[in-house]
Amino acid sequence: MTIDLPTIWAGIIGLTVFLYVLLDGFDLGIGILFPFFDREGEREVMLNTVAPVWDGNETWLVLGGACLYAVFPVAYSTLLPAVYLPVIAMLCGLIFRGVAFEIRAKARRTQNLWDLAFIMGSATATFCQGMILGTLLQGIKIVDGRFAGDPFDWLSPFSVFCGLGLLVTYATLGCGWLVMKTDGDLQRRTRVLLKPSSLVLLAVIGVISLWTVLGQPAVAQRWFGGHNFVYFAPVPLLVLACVVGIFRSADSGHEARAFILMQAIIFLGYSGLLISIFPNIVPPTLSIWAASAPRSSQIFVLVGVVIILPIILAYTALAYWVFRGKVRRGDEGYH
Predict the structure, then answer these.
(1) Closest CA to 123 of 57, 167, 178
(2) If exposure means fewest CB atoms within 10 Å of the residue's CB, which of 73, 123, 125, 176 is most exposed?
(3) How far is CA 11 from CA 265, 271, 323, in A?
(4) How far apart are CA 143 and CA 76, in angstroms?
(5) How far apart are CA 300 and CA 293, in angstroms?
(6) Which whole number is the average pLDDT over 252-259?
(7) Mind listing the pLDDT tens digit for each residue in 38-68?
(8) Measuring CA to CA, which residue among 259, 274, 212 is closest to residue 15?
(9) pLDDT single digits (tens) 302-323
(10) Are 139 and 168 spatial neighbours (Cβ–Cβ below 8 Å)?
(11) For residues 294-309, average pLDDT
């Protein structure tokens, strides 16, 4: 029996992208939330909640990009020209954010400027990620295995709205993280933000879902053709239940509930994306099999990933376990 390596690799890359969004999403969300918190010591506490883990979270982005380049070179060479400018802007945002994270703790006269760099870097990286997602959903023009569209095809009302939607998603995820990791007035003020952000999040999810179905007949057929709607209906219903749970958690004493429910929403949204496009890796026409590298190359890279993936998972889990618990003003961190 021949093992379907492209499907296995699609699962591995899908996992790395999912873990990146899940883990880096909340610390990008903290940068997005920075403008709402400027009392003395608040921003230091917010940064200290992610100081031990934020750079490790980005490991998944590097791993996913490297695997895509090695295993699905056709997809890489097709997707990158289509979203080249948003990718460059995203990387610049991540660089500014990382530099600001390190320097603002030592800056005195220029700390406000580094705070602004942290905010703009986080927001830029998030917005560009959302635009790339929107471009992928609306489809990329491919002829003879090559990108045949315009360099600015990524700039559309739908992709812009997806970028704004991801800003709301990461901000709500950041709220959930801060409720779980802080206490006192900072936690109380974060809970206040949960209600409006969860309502906006629900509206964003509804608009993007409806827009995608109405604008992409293939996606509509996937969701509503035959008995598919019966099978896939739990996804939007569970998303609705999770958003309601987040809204209600703002007034409850369950500190981890909002964060866990936001993780569930990301999982459900990611599942909806896979339902909409699989087995295409670059919609609407490039499948995982057509985009694959030679089988020998896939096996060679798979050996390395089988070794390194458990190591990354182990040290990531260890970091979160060691630095579990509340973070308060005066705790050791980036000072």
Answers:
(1) 167
(2) 73
(3) 19, 12, 29
(4) 15
(5) 11
(6) 85
(7) 877 888 899 999 988 888 888 899 999 999 9
(8) 274
(9) 999 999 999 999 999 999 999 8
(10) no
(11) 93
Predicted pLDDT of residue 145: 76
Q: Give me the phi and psi of 69, to 5 degrees please.
A: -65, -40
Contact 25, 169 (CB under 8 A): yes
What distance, in Å, lies between the first and last C-alpha atoms of the chain?
Answer: 58
Task: Return the closest-CA partner of residue 177 out of 160, 197, 162.
Answer: 197
pLDDT tens by residue, 98-132: 898 888 878 778 888 999 999 999 999 999 999 99
Query: Are 36 and 191 a contacting pair, CB within 8 Å?
Result: no
Quote the CA–CA distance of 264 and 22 in Å, as a whole number.
10
Distance CA 50, CA 178 (A): 10
Structure tokens at 268: 């459900």
Token duo for residue 283: 């919609």
d(CA 166, CA 172): 10
Give a three-class secondary structure readout of 95-144.
Answer: HHHHHHHHHCCCCCCCHHHHHHHHHHHHHHHHHHHHHHHHHHHHCCCEEC
DSSP 3-state of 227:
coil
**321 C-beta neighbours (distance < 10 Å), count:** 8
Give the tens place of pLDDT for each residue, 29-46: 999 999 998 877 888 899
Residue with tokens 């409850």: 252
Structure tokens at 269: 């949204």
Q: Where are the domains of the chain?
A: 26-293
pLDDT exceeds cutoff 80 at 335:
no
Report whether 250 contacts 194 (CB < 8 A): yes
Chain centroid to CA 26: 9
Residue 226 has pLDDT above 60, yes or no: yes
What pLDDT, in 10s, does the model give residues 125-157?
999 999 999 999 888 888 887 888 888 889 999
